[in-house]
Amino acid sequence: MAKRVGATTGLNSFQTSGCLKVLFGRNPSRLDAILINTSGGLTGGDKIDLTLDTGDGTCVSATTQAAERAYRAKDGWANVSTQLSVGEDSTLFWVPQELILFQGAALKRKLRCDLAPTARALIVEPVIFGRALMGETLTNAAFHDRIDINRAGAPLYRDAIRFDGDVHRHLSQTAVGAGAGAMASLIYVAPDAEAMCADIRQHLPATGGATLLQPDVMALRLLAEDSMALRTALLPILDRLTHTTLPASWRL
Prior knowledge:
Number of domains: 1
Strand content: over 45%
Number of helices: 3
Mean pLDDT: 95
Oligomer: single chain
Helix content: 10-25%
Radius of gyration: 18 Å
């Protein structure tokens, strides 16, 4: 949990166990958290629960040290559950690096974010469907993903994705992915969302789209051929929305 400390943000409480570790960067203007899965990836039977509470009047950025990997599952599902709470007059950048789904992966992932009425948030979830450079296509994988965002207790955004079996064939359909091998979902909640949406639309590729759900809520979906193409399109967007303060791990 984060708290206001003078003119900056510090830790109020912190607890971790199992494979999930956190490093905190040195940033005078906000609290930077870098999440590390020391197991090296996810497979059947794994379970990760993460809770992050920003407190009031704080600024927090959370990312990952590297891309997360969902490996072949011999038995059962890997489960990842994330609970985010953003306090009054607070800002949260939830900007994990890509999730890479391997052939045979079985992953259920849920993210819930509860925003106070005056909270600001940037939430992005990039996903890579197989390792294109290794010639891998996902003909047998399962990925169930859900994002729920509430503000002042009322629903603000709901999104669910479900792939079972031949993911590559499904994404090859024109109305679904038109052959995409990577995608990103992004939500931006801030007073300048309308202005940022107009700016970002001018720089989106033909496989991306951004829309205003409310005057201060922007939703964006981006499809790409592979991980490199996704990064090429996504990084400038994240730079704009974080005011060029995207965590350094994104550029390593």
